[in-house]
Amino acid sequence: MYNQIVKKPDKCYGCGACIEVCPKKCLKLGKDNLGFKKVIMTDENACISCGACSKVCEALNMQKGENIQCLKRYYAQNKDSNVLKRSSSGGVFTALAEYVFRNNGYVWGVQMNGNGKNEFKCASNVENLKSLCGSKYVEVDTALPFSKIKEQVQEGKLVLFSGTPCQVQAVNLFLKNKKYDNLILVDLLCYGVQSPAIWEKYISEVSCNNSKISNVQMRYKEPSWENYAMKIEFDDGTIYKKSRWKDPYLLSYATNLYNRTICMNCEAKKFPRVSDITLGDFWQIDTLPVISKEINIDSGVSIVLAHNEKGNEILKQLDEYLYMHELPKQIFTNMIERFSGCSKKNSNKEQFFKQLKTESFEKTVKDNIDSQTYTWLRFKYLKVKRILKRIKN
To answer: So where does this one cross the membrane (predicted)?
Structure first.
């Protein structure tokens, strides 16, 4: 029998593994009304019910965590100010990628092309890495590069694959859960995957002349890591830039108005994960009793979680490039539920999409999200509190 997820599109992660292994090529990726990838049966008569697609389907074979402690927990920041500037948080991904390049390996990540669509890209040097850095809060437009990753790994090359927890689960499952010493799996602290169709509408409104995109920084650190902005550069020389408190996309992307449905019940986020290392923003740095004075918080700080000895040994080799300090066990225990929790349905979702049919994205967002005043005041309060703490210490 063919993959039952074909008949349950809301449960599909859109990874494309089933398409990759289908011997009759009777599956393809389609898209729903929000632009999310879904597997589609193109020719049911051609299906031989071999079950290959079901064996690699992460929706059917998701490894479930138990929300227990990771092997090691750190907070870290890259020592290179230029790396920090182009990174969304603490620049740890770049340090990991450079470690792979020094060992003649490959790094897989996501870049945004000139049409504003995310796609997987393989980098083999620092220059090619730049487009993979930074947050990209929208679903990848292409299937995962399963066969290419497998080919590189089996050739003996050191390979780093970075992606969301579900993407890393998909790669791991495609490789039949085999633990390769030369494959480094890095996932992210993920809130959920946002709609490509909504992103396209937003881009159409901020682009004055329908010019192609030359660069996007969804977390442009001006004036600081916490007080970031959206910055989009276009080929015609125009630049769109608005702070997180005013840009409609940054105001709404974490409100679950247009997240993928399966993200509200994601098992891949639980700990420990199948990845070797998890990276994310350490927004909870204020909970530390003491913050290392070498860390410049305004430039961004990462939380770094090693799930196994392989991941931890790699991190130990980055001491020359990172300021890295171990996170107290109890501090992380208090964060597990926050990091692994799934987004909840927004009660304004139906009204949001109804209004979006006749109104601009910006106006629809302003009419359907809660006031940001409290968030802004809390941001200021924590900033003052941190400064006082550091003066005291």
So the answer is: none
